[in-house]
Amino acid sequence: MTLQLVLGLVAVAVSVVAWGVFVAAVLKQIKIIRLGQPDGTRFGPFGPRLKTLIVEFVAHTRMAKFRSVAPWHWMVMWGFLIGSAVLFEAYGEVFDPHFHWPIIGTWSVWLLLVELLGLGTVVGGVALAIIRQRNHPRRADRISRFQGSDFKAAYFVEAVVIIEGLGILGVKAFKQSSGLEEAPLWTSFVTQPLAHLLPSAAIWVSVMALVKLLSGMIWLIVVGRNLTMGVAWHRFSAFFNIYFKREADGGVALGALKPMMSGGKVLDLEEADPDKDVFGVGKVEDFTWKGVLDFSTCTECGRCQSQCPAWNTGKPLSPKLVITQLRDHMYAKAPYLLAGGSRDMAGDEVGLVEDKYEDYKKRLEGIDVLAMAESERPLVGGPDELGVIDPEVLWSCTTCGACVEQCPVDIEHVDHIVDMRRYQVLIESNFPSELGGMFKNLENKGNPWGQNAKDRLAWTEGLEFEVPVFDGELGDAEYLFWVGCAGAFEDRAKKTTRAVAELLHTAGVKYTVLGPEETCTGDPARRAGNEFLFQMLAQQNVEVLNSVFEDRPVGQRKIVVTCAHCFNTLANEYPQVGGTYEVVHHTQLLNKLVRERRLVPVAPVTEDVTYHDPCYLGRHNKVYEAPRELIGASGAKLREMPRHEERSMCCGAGGARMWMEERIGKRINVDRVDEALSTAPSKIATGCPFCRVMLTDGVTARQADGQAGAHVEVVDVAQMLLESVKRGQPAPAADAANA
User: Cα–Cα distance between 625 and 609 in angstroms, integer?
Assistant: First the structure.
């Protein structure tokens, strides 16, 4: 009895300390998260958000993207959630081995659940530790998704999980060996056989209950003292991060970029005040509170890193490390911010000044010297400047969205990276030199190549039919064919434009093109951070498009595009600036025409083809089936690359990288071409002009060094369909000359 009393008092004493430390840590973390900018778009609607939360954590829909990990994590998660009830039961068991929860404590279903929780927690914890070991970076270097993760923290958490599970099973087994609990074998299929091997000593029930309790209390103390231990804190913050995700319907933060916000409202650039408004993110506290919650929730699993095209080709960018570096910086700087500190754009102190706070000296003295030093670090800067995020890291991103797609806790990496780019471009004027020419061309010529608008119809020359050009009236045209800058000016992309025009003509689809009235959608400007230029181009285009469709109701304003980037921008981002249209990709429209028998493939393209999913068509907009069905309809045999559909590897052109030189590591397009060539194709098909350019360059490079046959070519899906529809007849001389 005395020993049990001692055990109980130890448990209570440690618990008081542990819960005090933990509650204080939670309150501090909430204060730090609230340092971020306001964002009122995250709170509703309640129903869809709650549904998303329940589905994601109960069914583990996000976690299941790595099927080898999902079941073990699912066991550990439920062991933590429901196991909390078993943990609190231990407070009674340390004092009295006979103790159990009233009503349910002797219920067979509860006894089975406890058995499964204990077993699942142990097995799950061991499995996760093994997975971490098998993927340790000492073996795989950059290939390991855990490179850069905090292994000590992870092993600590996994050890606690296993010990708690053993404690749950130990208490149950000793209760049975001591005759304190009688349960059918089906409810105790592990602990009952184990009980036959254990001594009949009730005190061991209290000992194991103490083990169960202390493991949990030590965990609370350790994580309470380490607010940046994401592998532990995600147990709590993940629920909130999922609920407050950008898309209330459960979608990931892809497609449209988050608008530039200041003070919780979308920033109107015409009325913005540089002295008050935030232009992108120049300091860590410029991120919204949801951004800080993102940083706090990262569990360092490295799924984002394993899918990142930049990281996998030797670039310094790791989406995981970007998030953890921002997290560590935020929490290190927090004491300074909580004391009222802030700096202006020039880096001068404007928060902690004598005339602002009566207790100015007390506030200043209360700030740790390390927090003061952290407050002086630039958010973006090279090693000499002690920057948090290196410029090479920031500008390596292709905005492909692979990180966002894979993150099990819905962190919005791309939005955060673009927000930092916005500040660098709009306020610092600090960006890769190659982008300067692209920005100038967009502003002066309306396209990234600096071509003349009068040449936007040059692709029509030599066609056997007349391409209808908008002349002030839409007439009976069903679609506006948005050609895009690449489709109008880039020689390889022109082939796609011509093929689509021929197919629409063959199918009898009524359409029109804008010709010189068309201007770049602004996609490269926006993803490079030049929000001002994007707004200018977008508003110009919306004004033109709304005048074209002025006699059509919103539901009948149809646009067909060949460029995945134009598709995404017109469909998802133009509604932000007053332009709402029904936008379809050419593969979707052509597939519909084939299904309706308005286009009939008659000569099979008997070749082996692999298909490259454009990021802004596939991952950002979930268009996977239409291009594949068209490849099948053309008669070709599809050979999938190892990374395809939602895990497709980027071609390297997105995020305005098309206009930036790759100077570090392996070229992304070459890496993707190597993967395509591994399927031994005669053709590499795609559905985006940027992808086509990048892949063609990659194939040319591999042909030059003898690693690809001269017969391998990169084509658009529309070209394959046209070849099949036209019975494979050779193109007219004029067509060939203009191709």
Answer: 15
Residue 514 reports pLDDT greater than 60: yes
Q: Which positions ≥6 away from 360 have C-beta within 8 Å?
A: 352, 353, 354
* Rounded CA separation 296/162 (Å): 24
Query: Mapping DSSP to helix (H, G, I), strand (E, B) and coil, where does residue 479 land?
Result: strand
Phi, psi of 282 (to 5 degrees): -110, -20
Partners of 608 in beta bridges: 637
| Torsion 87-91-95-100 (CA) sign | negative
Distance CA 330, CA 365 (A): 20
CA distances from 313 to 266, 317, 322, 668 (A): 36, 10, 17, 6
pLDDT confidence band for 353 (50 / 70 / 90): confident
Q: Is the pLDDT assigned to residue 736 strictly greater than 80? A: no
Q: How far apart are CA 154 and CA 608, in angstroms?
A: 45
The residue behind tokens 């905005």 is: 399
Question: In the predicted model, what is the mean pLDDT of residues 127-156?
Answer: 90
∠ at Cα 697 (696, 701), nearest 5°? 115
Residue 242: which of 320, 171, 299 has the closest Cα?
299
Contact 84/121 with Cβ under 8 angstroms? no
Q: Residue 512: enclosing H or E segment and its boundaries?
A: strand 511-513
Q: Angle CA(20)–CA(25)–CA(30) in degrees, nearest 5?
A: 130
Q: How far apart are CA 79 and CA 460, in angstroms?
A: 65
- Share of the chain residues as helix, strand and coil, in percent rounded to the nearest 5: 55, 5, 40
Alpha-carbon span 645 to 615, nearest angstrom: 9
Quick one: which H or E segment has residue 713?
strand 713-716
* C-alpha to C-alpha distances, 20 to 11, 80, 499, 679, nearest whole angstrom: 14, 20, 69, 59
What is the rounded average pLDDT for all residues in the chain? 92
Q: What predicted TM-score, i.e. pTM, was given to this entire model?
A: 0.93
Asked if pLDDT for residue 64 goes beyond 90, the answer is no
Q: How does pLDDT run across 165-192, given as a tens digit for each residue?
A: 999 999 999 999 998 888 899 999 999 9
- As to burial, measured by CB atoms within 10 angstroms (0-12 exposed, 13-18 middle, 19+ buried), residue 10 is middle
Summarised one tens digit per residue, pLDDT across range 583-621 is: 999 999 999 999 999 999 988 888 999 999 999 999 999
Query: What type of residue sits at position 565?
Result: H
Strand order in the sheet with 683-686: 637-638, 608-611, 683-686, 713-716
pLDDT digits (tens, 9 = 90+) for 326-339: 999 999 999 999 99
Length of the chain: 739
Tokens, residue 343: 């700096």
What is the three-class DSSP state of 75? Answer: helix
Whether the bond between 184 and the residue before it is cis, its omega within 30 degrees of 0, is no
Instruction: Please say whether the beta carbons of 709 and 696 come within 8 A.
Output: no
Residue 447: how many CB atoms within 10 A of its CB?
25
Q: How far apart are CA 56 and CA 410, in angstroms?
A: 10
pLDDT at 140: 75
Containing 609, the helix (H) or strand (E) segment is strand 608-611
